[in-house]
């Protein structure tokens, strides 16, 4: 196989998971701007996600969020997904929206609240069983706002205890993906603030526990690709929550704020063998002012473009320059790949896969947006928290 053929073959195997919540209405704490045609239930969210997959060919799974996507019959939801040509991806838990969680969930000082939180996580594993989902994605809003508010160490003990109970419940082939975030909603301490804390817990738990890197969850200036390289090297990178940020946890379209960072991350993924392993490439985004389905298509394409550039890095030229200590040449090799226009290559890849080479145009021409605006009348639109 020529090198280019190998790059194309790799791109054809790529998959990016889209999040159910990105199809619903969202906003900031100031305002949620409703959009016409937005899904009214999890089934309609899957219909929209299926459109993203239909036009990109690389978005076959959809992450759910419980309780926002709670339904009577999860088997029926999974069957609906399959009928539309997609599958249920990660199950995202929610231990941050009940009044009980004011002082935390599985780290809460009160055992009754901890029980409630762990029971919710166990329910999420039941949903994984019913939907055939592989991953339980955990993000905890737990933390404190004031020095002395609670005991930092005891909170870690409670976290370890809760995680261990859920870990024990995981079935064959199921994984627990633990996400970290430096601050917010807690402002003084966060119980899982960084990759080191997530890694320490996952290491103790065992093989089925892996770290998730949400690209928006770091302090400005953090070298995320270093974290990626390290976690991959340790066999502990479970996946990504891709999005982009200018300031904090902005949840904007991945690759929008800093496409070069996305390329550097994807380069480390390729370099570390993560592209051909079980690393889950998920989006965790909200589209507050832009049309949702096109924004998700754009995001998937941004991931594809960064991946294509990363795959184009001339590995032997890079290794040679690095071994020779040729700083400028090594940097030039990397920048060459980054500066290549991979859009024609991706158009070819799509054509060879029987897709329209221009997903965005094809989606617009499909009439889906107009159809859902006309059909989805009445009922309540899905949104953040529903
Ligand atoms: C909340 O901040 C969040 O964005 C986390 O990153 C989770 O991954 C996602 O929502 C779903 O709960
Ligand atoms: Mn996330």
What does this structure look like?
One of its GO terms (molecular function) is L-rhamnose isomerase activity. This is L-rhamnose isomerase. Residues 49-245 form the Xylose isomerase-like TIM barrel domain. InterPro entries: L-rhamnose_isomerase (IPR050337), Rhamnose_iso-rel (IPR013457), Xyl_isomerase-like_sf (IPR036237), Xyl_isomerase-like_TIM-brl (IPR013022). By secondary structure, the protein is α/β, with parallel strands linked by helices. It has a single domain, classed as Alpha-Beta Barrel (TIM Barrel), CATH 3.20.20. It contains 14 helices and ten strands. The strands form two sheets. An eight-stranded parallel sheet has the order 1-2-3-4-6-8-9-10. A two-stranded antiparallel sheet has the order 5-7. Helix 4 (111-131) runs parallel beside helix 5 (152-169). The longest helix has 21 residues, at 111-131. The termini are far apart. The structure holds alpha-D-psicofuranose (PSV) and manganese (II) ion (MN). The site of manganese (II) ion has 5 residues, from loops. Manganese (II) ion is lined by residues 139, 179, 214, 241, 284.
The helix tally amounts to 14
Taking strands numbered 1, 2, ... along the chain, how are they ordered across the largest sheet?
1-2-3-4-6-8-9-10
CATH superfamily: Divalent-metal-dependent TIM barrel enzymes
Largest sheet: 8 strands, parallel
Bound molecules: alpha-D-psicofuranose, manganese (II) ion
């Amino acid at each position: 196989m020529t090198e280019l053929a190998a790059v194309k073959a790799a791109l054809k195997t790529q998959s990016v998971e889209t999040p159910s919540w990105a199809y619903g209405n969202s906003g900031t704490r100031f305002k949620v701007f409703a959009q016409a045609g937005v899904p009214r239930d999890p089934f309609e969210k899957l219909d929209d996600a299926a459109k993203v997959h239909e036009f990109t060919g690389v978005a076959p799974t959809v992450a759910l969020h419980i309780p926002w996507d709670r339904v009577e019959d999860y088997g029926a939801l999974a069957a609906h997904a399959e009928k539309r040509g997609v599958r249920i991806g990660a199950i995202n838990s929610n231990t941050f929206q009940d009044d009980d969680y004011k002082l935390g969930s599985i780290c809460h000082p009160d055992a009754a609240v901890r029980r409630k939180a762990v029971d919710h996580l166990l329910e999420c594993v039941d949903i994984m069983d019913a939907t055939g989902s592989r991953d339980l994605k955990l993000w905890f809003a737990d933390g404190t706002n004031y020095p002395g508010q609670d005991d930092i160490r005891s909170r870690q003990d409670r976290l370890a205890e809760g995680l261990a109970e859920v870990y024990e419940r995981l079935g064959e082939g199921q994984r627990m993906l633990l996400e970290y975030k430096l601050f917010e909603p807690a402002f003084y301490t966060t119980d899982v603030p960084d990759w080191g804390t997530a890694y320490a817990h996952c290491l103790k738990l065992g093989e089925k526990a892996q770290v998730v890197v949400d690209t928006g969850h770091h302090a400005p200036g953090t070298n995320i690709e270093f974290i990626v390289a390290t976690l991959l090297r340790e066999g502990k990178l479970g996946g990504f929550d891709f999005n982009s940020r200018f300031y904090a946890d902005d949840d904007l379209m991945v690759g929008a704020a800093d496409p070069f960072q996305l390329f550097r991350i994807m380069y480390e993924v390729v370099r570390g063998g993560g592209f051909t392993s079980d690393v889950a490439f998920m989006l965790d985004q909200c589209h507050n002012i832009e049309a949702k389905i096109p924004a998700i298509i754009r995001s998937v394409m941004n991931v594809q473009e960064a991946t294509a550039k990363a795959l184009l890095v001339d590995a032997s030229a890079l290794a040679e320059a690095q071994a020779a200590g040729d700083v400028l040449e090594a940097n030039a090799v990397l920048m060459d790949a980054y500066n290549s226009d991979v859009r024609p290559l991706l158009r070819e890849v799509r054509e060879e896969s029987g897709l329209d080479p221009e997903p965005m145009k094809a989606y617009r021409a499909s009439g889906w947006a107009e159809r859902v605006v006309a059909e989805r009348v009445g009922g309540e639109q899905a949104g953040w928290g529903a």
